[in-house]
């Protein structure tokens, strides 16, 4: 319009330059601070590193990596190498097929392996510590394995046939394109599918019977699946069910029927429900998968729309199905109920269900990588934060659980596991899992480390780590708070802790820590709080609202500036994340709500606990600028408070930031995690 002022490009450029200069200044200041402080911990660091290496050699190295079985052949990965062995040989005469170092990828680790159906080709993804993107190496196997093709910036990949590979590419943390490439006759690559909605992420999966390859496009709350018929891999994908807001589903296949794990329909009744002569009843709470599914349904391949979905098995409301695996005559469900793991085996032959409670110490499981569809035995590993992975097997023929004794891993006998329920502000019961040394006396005097996450419907990580065992041996108490926003009790547990319910996760965390102290597990002056990534939101919020509950806080690549981050749509994850945090740009109520709990926005002069933060200079998920500004503001508030109350003998907390030039937001190899 006439009279409208045109913004000056010079001013915009100056603003960006000023921001960059401020970032560099803050980073340089924190690096100098770290260099001054870190020598103080040199002796402690040396002692801890030696102890962790000892525990790693004692437990993790002996536990072995997951195996992939193809008939008489067994494939496995160890120390950056992929081996092929005969099942009867017990891996004594294993042949090396691939070595990371031999191909010049010394700084990378193996992320995923896929063997073609005829075992002529092997696809491997390699990922470095400093990048989210992986590189795929396709090897032609034989007497002398050779590199057939290299595909950069890859995320997921699956073999549709012996020589046709489908894969997705990743750019700026987004996966939206699916390609197909062939390796014999007329070699070519073509684009098969493109996702247009920035909220959706695409990955690939192959059904256990290898009949279909599925293209899965999913947001935080909605999904859509396309089928590629592996008998006709060059034909266009077929849609199963068009995306419907709030509907999540995942596909398996058996005998011309699609088996669908889904959130579709009304919440399940108290008891599990069976159709098609599944008359066995189970009085059991079960959780939804990481997909947050709550039902198993089925439909004919030819008419796969949701109007044709028939219920096979339904799970109770506050339950979670952790994983699901389809076999030729059975399917296995790994379930959680108030922290306990269960195994449900549904027989398609006898139309029955067997439920087995797994050992009480178990908190996590890992299924054998790509188990054979027609196998008579299902292999898996169980672990906990303080129990190294232990091998188990379920025999479909014998209908029983077998504890494997193949590895010489010492059994942890001196650790006690306790499961508690804390009453939150709205009287919701929040699960807590506690570990401590059986020989510890006067637990109220022992140091306590509390873990929290509470976001995206993802469970708190409870896999084995050497540092947990070290802390138990040294008399620490470990507590894992399964607050709302996570996925521990299914879809509703996540919904009750995201967007406009985020504060409920904070109330849960406060209630958990207070209950621990009331029951004599440590006390505030001996308590520390640990969180990573989005767990930093609740940890940082508690640090503002209830700093007296803890003495120290440790954060790894934390999300602490929710409001400013969600206002920046140019960042790669902002649009996708709106389903978790809301959209403050278009909703004023949402903006005010985020502002009410955002750690950065609520810093004020008060007595804070000491804080140690690890961040990564090239982190694509959590902008370093937000962490730098958070630390600066937190340190200033702590000093302001101390200067006002210095006459009362108030202490000044340590607020330390370690910015690592290498490393990325995701899991890393053992050597890197050891140094960290």
TrEMBL record:
GO CC annotation terms, alphabetical: cytoskeleton; Golgi apparatus
Keywords for the protein's UniProt record, in alphabetical order: Hydrolase, Protease, Serine protease
One Gene Ontology term from the biological process aspect of the record: proteolysis
EC number(s) given by UniProt: 3.4.21.-
UniProt xrefs under InterPro entries: AB_hydrolase_fold, Pept_S9A_N, Peptidase_S9_cat, Peptidase_S9A, Serine_Peptidase_S9A
UniProt GO MF annotations: serine-type endopeptidase activity
Superkingdom of source: Eukaryota
Residues in Peptidase S9A N-terminal domain copies: 63-400
Summary of the function given for this chain in its UniProt record: Serine peptidase whose precise substrate specificity remains unclear. Does not cleave peptides after a arginine or lysine residue. Regulates trans-Golgi network morphology and sorting by regulating the membrane binding of the AP-1 complex. May play a role in the regulation of synaptic vesicle exocytosis.
Family according to the record: Belongs to the peptidase S9A family.
Name by which UniProt lists this protein: Prolyl endopeptidase
């Amino acid at each position: 319009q006439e009279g409208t002022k045109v913004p000056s490009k010079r001013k915009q450029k100056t603003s960006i330059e000023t921001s960059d200069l401020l970032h560099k200044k803050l980073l340089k200041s924190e690096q100098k601070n770290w260099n001054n402080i870190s020598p103080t911990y040199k002796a402690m660091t040396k002692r801890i590193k030696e102890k962790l290496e000892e525990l790693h050699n004692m437990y993790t190295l002996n536990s072995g990596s997951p195996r992939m079985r193809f008939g008489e052949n067994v494939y496995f990965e160890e120390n950056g190498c992929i081996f092929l062995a005969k099942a009867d040989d017990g891996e004594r005469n294993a042949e090396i097929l691939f070595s990371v170092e031999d191909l010049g990828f010394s700084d990378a680790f193996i992320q995923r392996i896929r063997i073609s159906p005829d075992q002529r080709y092997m696809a491997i993804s390699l990922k470095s510590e400093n990048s989210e993107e992986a590189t795929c190496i396709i090897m032609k196997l034989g007497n002398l394995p050779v590199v057939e093709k290299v595909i950069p910036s890859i995320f997921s990949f699956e073999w549709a046939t012996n020589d046709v590979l489908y894969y997705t590419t990743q750019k700026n943390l987004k996966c939206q394109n699916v390609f197909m490439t062939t390796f014999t006759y007329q070699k070519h690559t073509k684009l098969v599918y493109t996702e247009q909605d920035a909220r959706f992420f695409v990955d690939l999966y192959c059904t256990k019977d290898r009949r279909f390859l599925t293209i899965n496009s999913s947001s935080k709350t909605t999904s859509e699946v396309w089928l590629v018929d592996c008998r006709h891999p060059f034909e266009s994908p077929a849609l199963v069910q068009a995306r419907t807001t709030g509907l999540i589903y995942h596909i398996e296949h058996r005998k011309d029927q699609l088996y669908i794990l889904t959130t579709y329909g009304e919440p399940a009744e108290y008891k599990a429900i069976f159709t098609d002569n599944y008359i066995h009843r189970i009085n059991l709470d079960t959780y939804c998968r990481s997909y947050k599914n709550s039902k198993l349904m089925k439909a004919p391949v030819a008419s796969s729309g949701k109007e044709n979905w028939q219920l096979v098995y339904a799970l109770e409301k506050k339950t979670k199905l952790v994983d699901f695996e389809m076999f030729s005559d059975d399917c296995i469900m790994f379930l959680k109920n108030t922290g306990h793991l269960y195994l449900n085996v549904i027989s398609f032959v006898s139309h029955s269900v067997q439920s087995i409670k797994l050992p009480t110490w178990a908190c996590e499981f890992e299924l054998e990588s790509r188990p054979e569809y027609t196998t008579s035995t299902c292999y898996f590993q169980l672990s906990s934060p303080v129990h190294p992975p232990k091998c188990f097997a379920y025999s479909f023929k014998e209908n029983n659980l077998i504890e494997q004794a193949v590895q010489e891993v010492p059994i942890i006998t001196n650790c006690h596991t306790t499961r508690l329920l804390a009453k939150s502000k709205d009287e919701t019961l929040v699960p807590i899992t506690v570990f401590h040394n059986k020989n510890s006396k006067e637990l109220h005097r022992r140091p306590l480390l509390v873990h929290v996450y509470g976001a995206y419907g993802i469970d708190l990580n409870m896999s084995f780590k050497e540092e947990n065992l070290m802390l138990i041996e040294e008399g620490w108490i470990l507590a894992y708070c399964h607050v709302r926003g996570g996925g521990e009790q299914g879809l509703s547990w996540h919904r009750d802790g995201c967007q406009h319910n985020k504060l409920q996760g904070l109330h849960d965390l406060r209630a958990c820590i207070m209950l621990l102290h009331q029951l004599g597990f440590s006390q505030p002056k001996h308590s520390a709080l640990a969180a990573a990534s989005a767990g930093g939101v609740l940890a940082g919020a508690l640090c503002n609202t209830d700093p007296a509950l803890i003495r120290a806080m440790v954060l790894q690549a934390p999300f602490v500036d929710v409001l400013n981050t969600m206002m920046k749509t140019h960042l790669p994850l902002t649009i996708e994340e709106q389903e978790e945090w809301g959209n403050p740009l278009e909703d004023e109520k949402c903006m005010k709500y985020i502002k009410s709990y955002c750690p950065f926005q609520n810093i004020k002069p008060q007595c804070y606990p000491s804080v140690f933060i690890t961040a990564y200079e090239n982190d694509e998920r959590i902008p370093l600028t937000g962490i730098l500004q958070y630390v600066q503001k937190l340190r200033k508030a702590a000093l302001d408070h101390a200067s006002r109350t210095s006459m009362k003998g108030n202490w000044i907390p340590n607020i330390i930031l370690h910015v690592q030039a290498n490393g990325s937001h995701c899991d890393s190899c053992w050597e890197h995690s050891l140094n960290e």
